[in-house]
């Protein structure tokens, strides 16, 4: 089934994460989109009760679309570490604690991983939802390995410990424009753009 086309105008970025909002706004820049964040509109953050990235992205997008009466784009993303049974996965932000301290989260991943295989996958699912309930979902992944100690002060979340395959530097060391062209979110966004914005 063909995804519904976005006709242009205002689009809610259904996130309260400043780093994610900046990255998604940069990805939207070439299109006829006026991005507005959920925080700017005073929208509450819904509880992420889904069991998958897809379910949580859809939940956030639908909640924002209904509340704002505008199309909404949500991302649910996280770090999947096979040696940890897929953790932190959909709980990636929760591993950072109530203060969203990703230094704590990265240290926990490193501690629990120990000498096990350091392969990892960054996953992003983007959900585009309309106020009438229609949705489209797009998944992007990047495989890599986990470095320790963290490297670089760019990016956000787990970026300082994730080195994508074929590279020697972590996302946390990359210029943002380079990261936006190569990361999991940009891969999901390329699918979304081709289906809904092209």
Description of the molecule:
The chain has 198 residues and is of the alpha/beta class. The chain has a single domain, classed as Maf protein. It has helices at 18-28, 53-68, 102-113, 176-182, 184-197; strands at 9-13, 33-37, 72-80, 119-129, 135-146, 162-164. A hairpin with a 5-residue loop joins strand 4 and strand 5. It starts with 8 loop residues before the first strand and ends with a helix.
List keywords for this structure.
6 strands, alpha/beta, Maf protein, 30% helix
Helix-strand sequence: EHEHEHEEEHH
List segments where confidence is low: pLDDT < 50 over at least 5 consecutive residues: none
Computed structural class: alpha/beta
If helices are DSSP runs of H or I spanning 4 or more residues, what is the number of helices?
5
CATH architecture descriptor name: Alpha-Beta Complex
Topology:
Blueprint: E1 9-13, H1 18-28, E2 33-37, H2 53-68, E3 72-80, H3 102-113, E4 119-129, E5 135-146, E6 162-164, H4 176-182, H5 184-197
Parallel strand pairs: 1-2, 1-3
Antiparallel strand pairs: 3-4, 4-5, 5-6
Helix pairs in contact: 4-5
Concise account of the structure shown:
The chain is an alpha/beta fold and 198 residues long. Helices cover 30% and strands 23% of the residues.
């Amino acid at each position: 089934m063909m995804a519904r086309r976005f006709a242009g105008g205002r689009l809610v970025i259904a996130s309260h994460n400043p780093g994610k909002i900046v990255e998604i706004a940069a990805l939207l820049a070439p299109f006829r989109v006026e991005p507005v964040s959920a925080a700017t509109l005073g929208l509450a953050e819904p509880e992420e009760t889904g069991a998958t990235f897809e379910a949580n992205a859809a939940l956030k997008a639908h909640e924002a679309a209904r509340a704002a009466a505008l199309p909404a784009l949500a991302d649910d993303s996280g770090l999947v570490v096979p040696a940890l049974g897929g953790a932190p996965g959909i709980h990636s932000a929760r591993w950072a604690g109530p203060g969203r301290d990703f230094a704590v989260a990265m240290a926990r991943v490193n501690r629990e991983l120990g000498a096990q295989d350091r392969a990892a996958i960054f996953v992003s699912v983007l959900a585009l939802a309309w106020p009438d309930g229609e949705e489209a979902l797009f998944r992007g992944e990047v495989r890599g390995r986990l470095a320790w100690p963290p490297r670089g002060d760019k990016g956000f979340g787990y970026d300082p410990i994730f080195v994508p395959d074929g590279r020697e530097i972590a996302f946390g060391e990359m210029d943002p424009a380079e990261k936006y062209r190569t990361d999991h979110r940009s891969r999901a966004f390329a699918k979304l753009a081709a289906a809904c914005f092209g």
